[in-house]
Specification:
alpha/beta, eight-stranded mixed beta sheet, 13% strand
């Protein structure tokens, strides 16, 4: 018996091409082109517009941030990034961890000074800040910054260099503690061989940090201008009102770079008056509702610009 002879390679290739071509012709003849069904999107999807909410410094006036967040949430304004300085970092970290603004309000109305303030013998500050750090970490379930549900930036100041320090990873409670460490009130926070104090020293409302980290739209909440024109009573009130004046003086440069600035009327709320928290929350709501038309207009403009 003769061995079977292989088909020459060139002949096999040519035969295969002819067969496939003929098969496609037959199949194609029986399957006419189908039109795109109505309502089916054929253009590339619109690029998502990234919105950052920047929550400014202001001690007890920071309760106003909760009112702002309540309105943004109820009106379905998307928030992809939260940037916080001092009191803004405290509220912002909890919101970024997934705490609903209405739950935040409930928490705020129940919290007492003893829950977050630990006085100590004055040593470069008379509040240690450890209670604040523990409160934050307990509430966010020890979740590090980089694993929070929303992107979160905590802003502090490197006291040795005077430069802005932006925490985007690591211990959430410690970063918030550093951001809130008002010089002379809180003891400075040491991390990684550096020493940090309140972020409001250099960036009371950190709009530029939000831009650097990819925000297309920045909604800034400024609570730094709430000076009621009264002489403070006591050492702590004097320090904090002086800090408020500083915040107001240095925040304008960054606020000019925000797309929308929300300014709750917190002039009648002292920096240590936690008992006026409900009033602060209401003022935040009022200011946010007033800013909604501007917010919606900016969002629509950015979305239109991003369409192909």
């Amino acid at each position: 018996m003769k061995d079977a002879m292989p088909v020459p390679r060139k002949g096999l290739l040519r035969a295969s091409v002819l067969f496939v071509t003929a098969l496609l012709a037959v199949v194609g003849a029986g399957c006419p082109a189908r039109p795109t069904p109505p309502g089916v999107e054929t253009t590339p999807p619109t690029k998502e517009v990234k919105v950052a909410v920047v929550l400014g410094a202001g001690a007890s006036k920071g309760f106003a941030h909760i009112g702002v967040l309540k309105v943004l949430e109820s009106q379905k304004v998307p928030v992809h990034m939260v940037v916080g300085t001092s009191a803004g970092s405290l509220v912002g970290s909890l919101y970024a961890s997934g705490v609903d603004p209405f739950a935040l309000q409930d928490m705020a109305l129940k919290i007492q000074k003893k829950d977050v303030i630990d006085y100590t013998v004055p040593d470069n500050g008379f509040i240690k800040g450890e209670k604040l750090e523990d409160f934050i970490n307990k509430t966010v379930r020890n979740t590090p910054i980089e694993r929070l549900k929303k992107k979160f930036l905590a802003v502090a100041t490197d006291i040795a260099t005077g430069e802005e320090a932006v925490f985007v990873a690591g211990n959430t409670g410690k970063a918030v503690r550093a951001s809130c460490s008002v010089p002379g009130v809180f003891q400075p926070v040491k991390m990684g061989g550096k020493t940090y104090v309140d972020g409001g020293v250099v960036s009371p409302v950190a709009v530029e940090a939000a831009r650097r980290h990819g925000a297309d739209v920045v909604i800034a909440v400024d609570i730094s201008g709430g000076i009621a024109g009264e002489v403070p009573q006591g050492t702590l009130d004097t320090i904090l009102q002086s800090v408020d004046i500083m915040y107001a003086k240095i925040s304008e440069h960054q606020l000019s770079k925000a797309d929308v600035v929300i300014r709750p009327d917190v002039r009648g709320i002292g920096s240590t008056e936690m008992e006026k928290r409900h009033q602060a929350i209401l003022e935040g709501e009022k200011a946010a509702y007033a800013a909604l038309p501007r917010i919606m207009k900016v969002l629509e403009e950015r979305r239109s610009a991003s369409r192909p």
